[in-house]
Amino acid sequence: MQNMAFNLYSNAKMQLRQLRHLLALAEQGSFGRAAEAVHLSQPALSRSIEKLEEDIQARLVDRAYGQVRFTAAGDLVLARARELLADADQVQRDVLLLQGLATGSLQVGLGPFAAGMLGRPALSLMAQRHPKLTVRIDMADPATLGERLHRRQLDLFIADSRDLKRQPGLQFKRLPNVDVSFFVRAGHPLLAHEGVTLEQAMDFPVASPNLPAAVAAYFERQVRRSDRPVFNLVCDDLGTLRHLALSADAVILAPDAVGLNHGTESLERLVIKRFTRMQTHYSIVLPANRTMSPAALAFTRLVHEMMAPAGGKAVKAV
Length: 318
Prior knowledge:
The chain is an alpha/beta fold and about 325 residues long.
């Protein structure tokens, strides 16, 4: 019996379809009615049962005198078949639920600016559309997010991808660009001018998130001052950058996004001379050889939907 049970679970040739035929035979009590129930001819059903007996090397049904009687082995296989078929049906139901996002989980990483632009609204929309889905959002720099993605701690992340494209095993799906500008509080002394140089802005605190290496180097090349770096305040939280602008007269570099201006105190764009239009360079970053889950697909569609109005003609990103 133990060997027979082992063969039942280990024999790769045994199909769930044959077990369904066996269960139909037990429920209907005859080959004729069972064949009709599973939409087969009686000879085809008989061959299916015989193949099952051959695979597990045990007789399951006594066919004497036109009656169907299960052997001891048949009763054991029948009991196991009910369990296996119930599990198989539950797996199918779970997959359908997952595809409908009635269950499941999603782990998303967001870079600094992406967190400020997308974190709250994306999480809110996912919660409204898929209230039973478990969603976790992590915020970190792109390099850290890349490591977490490789370790399968994230399903995907959104960040400035310019410092990541040299990493193998990643695929990038570009997102629409978002304008990036310098901002100050309303009434800031620098707003009295039609435009200021970056060196003039450096008479005040200048704040930004951690920038890609190429972007940071670009700004440093634009000034001749050696008394301080261009960005002497660095913080990856958009809310903190906004607070610095409002409370410390800081000039901040930030995306022109909904998350920047809220409440009664607004920020105004500061024109910096000799600077061309700046934009984000964001991508959804995914493992190169991993199938996206239904939840990840839903999230990427939502992000494209949110950022679509920010799209426009292609402009060089800095």
